[in-house]
Design goal:
Order of helices and strands: EEHEEEEEH
Helix content: 10-25%
CATH class of one domain: Mainly Beta
Number of helices: 2
Strand content: 35-45%
Distance between the termini: 29 Å
Oligomer: single chain
Strand order of the largest sheet: 6-5-4-3-7
Shape: globular
CATH topology of one domain: SH3 type barrels
CATH architecture of one domain: Roll
Length: 160
């Protein structure tokens, strides 16, 4: 166990830093918890989150559909916030990506936004709260798909 000695300003005391080993342990735990079947999405995207709900002995799946207004990416604690308007009332729900409560996530459409946190939408109503959708032609969609596969292939060869 390699410990690094950190000298303090006081000459009488010194303490050891174990943060390197701790970060390795945290990374190992995160790798076991992370859910691999979640699609890539970002703020502004419209998503359908299939949530498992347990009522007594029975379990069912309920769909929560809305716009992703925030996403926090940090290890096993990755969360995302989805907002929808139900009967004139704004409803927001924060989901943990690694939670077993989430059955699956479907990306309905991708939004075209310039911010990662869209909290300003809370104060908007009607058409003002709509997010512009990123519309692609067939040619540009095929080109972007080809670029993504080429990037994944390059990344895989670089890792080996």
């Amino acid at each position: 166990m390699a410990q690094k000695l950190i000298k303090s300003k006081s000459r009488t005391k010194a303490h050891y830093d174990n943060s390197h080993n701790l970060s390795k342990t945290v990374d190992a735990v995160d790798a076991t918890v992370i859910n691999k079947n979640i699609p890539e999405f970002s703020s502004g995207d419209s998503v359908k989150v299939h949530v498992r709900i347990k009522e007594g002995e029975k379990e069912r799946v309920q769909i929560f559909e809305g716009t992703v207004i925030a996403k926090s990416n940090r290890g096993a604690g990755k969360t995302f916030t989805v907002r929808k308007v139900a009967h004139g009332v704004g409803v927001e729900r924060i989901f943990l990506e690694t939670s077993p409560v989430i059955a699956k996530i479907d990306v309905v459409s991708q939004g075209k936004v310039r911010r990662s946190k869209l909290y300003y939408i809370r104060g908007l109503e009607g058409k003002a709260a709509k997010i512009e959708r990123d519309v692609q032609t067939n040619e540009s969609a095929a080109a972007s798909a080809a670029a993504k596969t080429a990037a994944k292939a390059a990344k895989a060869t670089k890792a080996n």
